Amino acid sequence: MSFIQKVRHCLAGSRASNIIRLLEQYQKKHGDFTLVETGSIRNTSVRYQKDDGHSTKHICEFVKRNPGCTFYSVDLETGTCDAYLKTKGLREYVHLVQGNSLDVLPTLDFDIAYLDSDNDSELILKEFMIAKNKARLIIVDDVDPTDASLKKGIEVTKYLDSNHLPYILLPRQLVFWNDGQAI
Ligand SMILES: C[S@@+](CC[C@H](N)C(=O)[O-])C[C@H]1O[C@@H](n2cnc3c(N)ncnc32)[C@H](O)[C@@H]1O
């Protein structure tokens, strides 16, 4: 069993709980932070709540509990997410930015990036290359070298591997610490 497989098996859990655990660990070490997410809630059906994970909602709940943190979520179309968060009483905990992630990311300052936009590994690599000059922690959704249907992180893992940069894999997630620390 490879190192990655061992880690994946050890850290089984939902995506939302993984992200929130990472945010809690980051905050404990570095204090309040600014996070930017690419890809906001796009559909409110139960299927999408489960399959996409509804990270925007879970991160809003984290910010509600930790009001010193700031949260931006970027999407080509933010209307669905806007309306949904209003129904949940969470709209005030995120700055929704409508636009292309590649245009918006360079305009923001942030400590953590959560990359969850298109299932397009070239786009995610471009987002990553912008984020790596700004963020200390980058989380990429849908990274699993053993599952060909999870494409988002393919080019990012190639880049990290070829540059000998550290990262860990959690179930369907990849995490890269700019300061070289593992968790
Ligand atoms: C997988 S969904 C995001 C799911 C959301 N994070 C959740 O957990 O519910 C992907 C979203 O990325 C958006 N998207 C795709 N390409 C984008 C781009 N270049 N810039 C910004 N958003 C993009 C899509 O409109 C879609 O809403």
Describe the structure.
It is a single chain. The chain has helices spanning 3-10, 15-30, 46-51, 55-65, 79-87, 101-104, 121-131, 154-162; strands at residues 34-38, 70-75, 95-98, 112-115, 137-141, 167-170, 173-177. With 183 residues, it is of the alpha/beta class. It has a single domain (3-177), classed as Rossmann fold, CATH 3.40.50.150. A 7-stranded mixed β-sheet has the order 3-2-1-4-5-7-6, sandwiched between helices. Mean pLDDT is 85; it is low at 1-13 and 178-183. Bound molecules: S-adenosylmethionine.
**N to C succession of SSEs:** HHEHHEHEHEHEHEE
The CATH architecture category equals 3-Layer(aba) Sandwich
Strand percent estimate:
15-25%
In CATH, the topology is named Rossmann fold
List the helices and strands and how they pair.
Elements: H1 3-10, H2 15-30, E1 34-38, H3 46-51, H4 55-65, E2 70-75, H5 79-87, E3 95-98, H6 101-104, E4 112-115, H7 121-131, E5 137-141, H8 154-162, E6 167-170, E7 173-177
Parallel strand pairs: 1-2, 1-4, 2-3, 4-5
Antiparallel strand pairs: 5-7, 6-7
Helix pairs in contact: 2-4, 7-8
